[in-house]
Specification:
The protein is mainly alpha-helical and 218 residues long. It has one domain (2-206): Up-down Bundle (Vanadium-containing Chloroperoxidase, domain 1). Helix content is 57%, strand content 0%. The protein has helices spanning 19-48, 58-83, 120-126, 129-133, 140-160, 166-189, 196-206. Helix 1 (19-48) crosses helix 2 (58-83) and helix 3 crosses helix 6. The longest helix has 30 residues, at 19-48. The chain is elongated, with a radius of gyration of 21 Å.
Length: 218
Amino acid sequence: ISRAFFDESHRVFPVQYSIVARHLRDAFMYVIAALVAPAFVAVALKFLLPHRKMLIAARAAFFLIATLALAPGVMANMILKDYWGRPRPAEVTEFYGPEKFVPWWDPRGACDKNCSFVAGEGAGGFWTLAPAALAPPAWRPIAYAAALLFGAAAGGLRLSGGAHFFTDVVFSGVFTFLIIWIVHGLIYRWRTRTTDARVEGAIESIAPMRLIGRPRGP
């Protein structure tokens, strides 16, 4: 699939140098930031004003922040991309690079850091499945479809620029979905499920301003 985006005559992936592609990458990141910003603001205000009710549901805020940290953050960028040595398409000999092609399942490639597997921006794009999971039931199928398209577009943009293989994008979506499914189950569905009041109480208990504004006894 990567070969379809490669310019053999110039030996480059043209999208890699496209200004439009750079703006699109930025736009994808802005959308993700906008989706998670209310959660960060709600938690930050709870730390500063612990006796005030959170602006959004506490479980939703924790769910969004936790999944963003675990999927694109820990899984993709801190673990796999730094320890799974698969070279990027633009770096392999098939596209006139110096490195040998390595399949997705083999971590023994020559890449030392910030490698191809998995697609970090793909994981960020597919993370939008998390806010989609919080949509009203009637709108949830549409939200899931939009999230999948968004993730595919974010990952596909990187694929077209020679930064990732198709399998890097696919597994960024698979692993991100699994993390979101597990965290959602822990918070909302399984025996470990909790309530908004408990989450707010936990945040309040570690807030540095928790003693300020507390009613005094007689």
